[in-house]
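Repro:
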Amino acid sequence: MFERRYEKHVAITGIGQSEVARPSSRSAMRLTLDACLEAIEDAGLTRADIDGVACWPGDHNNGDPFSPVGPSALKSALGLNVNWFGAGYEGPGPLTGIINGAMAIEAGLCRHVLVFRTITEASARIQNKQASALTNKTQGRDSSYAWQWLTPFNVFSAINLMALYTQRHFHEYGTTPEQLAQIALTCRANAMRNPKAIYRTPMSMEDYLASRMISTPLRMFDCDVHCDGSTAIVLSRRDAARDTRHTPIRIESIGAALNQPWSWDQISLTEMAAFDVAKMMWARTDYRPQDVELAELYDGFSILTMIWLEALGLCPIGQSGAFVEGGRRIALDGELPINTNGGQLSGGRTHGLGYVHEACLQMWGRAEGRQTSRNGVVAVAAGGGPLGGSLLLVRE
């Protein structure tokens, strides 16, 4: 089906992350520079080596808390001379920068691409609690293409949409609140071992069930936690990666497909674009779901992690509840550890690149306090609804 699989010639060679805080006293640009300079140094490169830069959502939202720093501002701040400049919005969601950067490298436009993602929604919510509402993100994003049909019915947050998927999953497959809780409980247990995580206090099943219902059946602890922070990744052409500091982490396969209507109300309420994404990813590799040893799966809301488990074939469709029940299977020392840094539910909403950063820490054996032994083949997925992207990462 795919004759040219460009991603196989691209590797991750360096990572960086600023402080993750709620909120941070540092400016958005300072957070971005902290992450990017750390990633460049981590790869053993200099700013002069970076000849490509990419970001999602890029300059379209530049200046608002969802994307306070875009690639044009970063290029100026770092004094980069680039041959390729990637600043697009939609695409496959939070992993767009990595997917586009890998394409630019394979196209011969550049050798080392700096990909970053900065978010400052925690600071913004101090001034305006509605700062992260969908109604405030419509302008300039999609010209109200979808939200114009939803906001008149009080769909002001993505949780109102995700609650529909959750309720349907409960109805179709018998999933229970106690099973869903295991995503939040596992993330919290992992976050307690991550010094950068926002929430690091213990959480019990009783605590979860007692938390405030936000949009039935999703509770407060089913929602990710807004934060301020920046994450950066250096992508390198594989032959150029030989000169970098770490053993390269190869991008074995990517998924970015959308084979269904963009509107959320026209697709199955137990599936999302995640299933299209996964089908594409597995079609581009000889690896199979049973080869995956570790998974970093989007948890903007807890139900999304369960949908990604099913979509990626890491458990049978409809059986994610039974798969995570009790939490043992997905714990740090389980057969398939997930969201080892605490995810977005407890670690902080670093929005996509945080999962890639954590996957690399695990694969390089640098995840102090939460290091897993199963980290040779790692699946990373980000996004929900009509936006989704995935990576299959393999150690060289």
